[in-house]
Amino acid sequence: MVEQERQIDQSRVVVEVWADLGCPWCYVGKHRLEAAISQRSDADRFEIVMRSFQLDPTAPQELEKNEISFVRSHPGSTSDDLRRAEGQMRAIANKEGLTYTIDRWNANTFDLHRVVQYAGDQGRGYAFFSAVQDGFFGGVLNPFDPEALVGVAESVGLDGQRVREILAADEYADRVRADREEAVELGSTGVPFMVFDRRVGAPGAQKVTVYSQLLEQVAGPASSERAS
Q1: What sequence ranges are listed for the domain DSBA-like thioredoxin (predicted)?
Q2: Which residues face 106 on adjacent strands?
Q3: What angle do CA 111, 92, 37 make, to 5 degrees?
Q4: pLDDT tens-digit profile of 164-189?
Q5: Please, where are the H alpha helices in the chain?
Q6: pLDDT value for 1
């Protein structure tokens, strides 16, 4: 039995995903990664681990409209620049079956990442972040409302009261910062940034075929594709 458990552990493949909430390419990239994994007959071998990376640590705590956030964080840009970029991203997302709302609100994501760290300790980090991001880009969730985060947390099996306690304090702050520092040390200059089995890194949102190749590189070929 011990030997069998050891073999199972050795077959497990961890894919670490550094991302931030309002990053459109993170939204698209994580769905492409999921698609690549789901195509494999051994999809259960893979565990996606969520890591924290704030793109704009200086973002205000107060809500601001998407265009204001964009112009503030991209000196020299205009609202028209945002509309063009967002229109292109919406077309890309929609083509892949994803809902994409342009008129979003933004704010500092540090508190969200602190909850992600807690969720990760419970084995639900990726599930929690993914649900929050999908709701955010889908236009059905305000992730800067503490009670909204509590609701998502409970929907993925986390303790809502524990989330309230974390949001009311400063727990996990050091780990959020450490995650970002580690990504930079590994060569990341932005997100999404994915590391496969601690052997190969993939910056940016790659195509599904590229993620499939990387999965095969670190885990070997699957016996056959999953039936659709």
Answers
A1: 14-215
A2: 64
A3: 70
A4: 999 999 999 999 999 999 999 999 99
A5: 2-11, 24-38, 66-73, 79-95, 110-121, 125-137, 146-155, 160-168, 173-185, 208-219
A6: 40
Q: Where are the domains of the chain?
A: 17-219
CATH class of 17-219: alpha beta
Q: For residue 3, is pLDDT > 80? A: no
Nearest to 52 by CA among 106, 129, 121, 123: 129
pLDDT at 131 over 70: yes
Say how many Å lie between the first and final Cα of the chain, rounded.
Answer: 34
Asked whether the beta carbons of 129 and 19 are under 8 A apart, the reply is yes
d(CA 204, CA 15): 14
1 alpha-carbon distance from chain centroid: 36
Selection from 107, 129, 135 nearest residue 116 by Cα: 129
Distances (CA, A) of 117 to 126, 180, 224: 10, 12, 35
pLDDT band at 53 (very low <50, low <70, confident <90, very high): very high
Q: Report pLDDT digits (tens) over 143-163.
A: 999 999 999 999 999 999 999
**What is the model's pTM?**
0.91
Contacts with 81 (C-beta within 8 Å, 6 or more apart), sequence order: 70, 74
Q: Describe the strand order of the beta sheet including 13-19 as a list of residue ranges.
A: 46-52, 13-19, 193-196, 200-203
Distance of alpha carbon 200 from alpha carbon 140, whole angstroms: 35
Whole-number Å distance between alpha carbons of 124 and 133: 14
